[in-house]
Amino acid sequence: MDCPKCSGEMVTKTHDGDISIERCRVCYGLLMEDYMLERMRDEWMAETFLDIGSASLGKKFDKIDNIKCPVCNIKMDKIVDPTQTHIWMESCPKCYRIFLDAGEFTDLKYETLSDKFKSLLKGKRK
Ligand SMILES: [Zn+2]
Ligand SMILES: [Zn+2]
């Protein structure tokens, strides 16, 4: 499979037998099914194994839009995370695979954790 952004080779990466994603060897973009993203968000430290590209590299490739799903060969939609509107992701309208640039998953996950932490603190305070 070729990377939809840079045509680099996408290789399958697995983590703990539960998580399986495709990662580009050149831009370190990540392609995964939508339920896999939820699993990765729950998996402790998944970002350190899977999202190894630098955020600055990811920002460079984030400027490339209008990409096609490498599986379905149709245009992917730009979507934002409902809780973190600064993170743009590409989503395939047919197979629901999601493409994240390098660093975006770490951003997504870190913010999610800190948001959870904030609500924990709020819950404790009277
Ligand atoms: Zn790539
Ligand atoms: Zn697709």
In this structure, how is the largest beta sheet organized?
6 strands, antiparallel
Q: Could you give the order of the helices and strands?
A: EEEHHHEEEH
Give the bound compounds.
zinc ion
Number of helices: 4
Shape: globular
Strands of the widest sheet, in order across it, are 1-2-3-6-5-4
Strand residues, percent: 15-25%
Organism: SAR86 cluster bacterium
Domain Transcription factor zinc-finger: 2-32
Pfam family, one: Zn_ribbon_TFIIB
Protein name: Transcription factor zinc-finger domain-containing protein
General description of the model:
The protein has 126 residues and is α+β, with helices and mostly antiparallel strands. The chain has one domain (10-119). Helix content is 34%, strand content 22%. It is built from 4 helices and 6 strands; from the N terminus they run E-E-E-H-H-H-E-E-E-H. It has helices at residues 34-42, 46-50, 55-62, 104-124; strands at 10-15, 19-24, 30-33, 77-80, 88-91, 97-100. It has a 6-stranded antiparallel beta sheet with strand order 1-2-3-6-5-4. The relative contact order is 0.19. The model has no long low-confidence stretch (mean pLDDT 89). Bound molecules: zinc ion (2 copies).
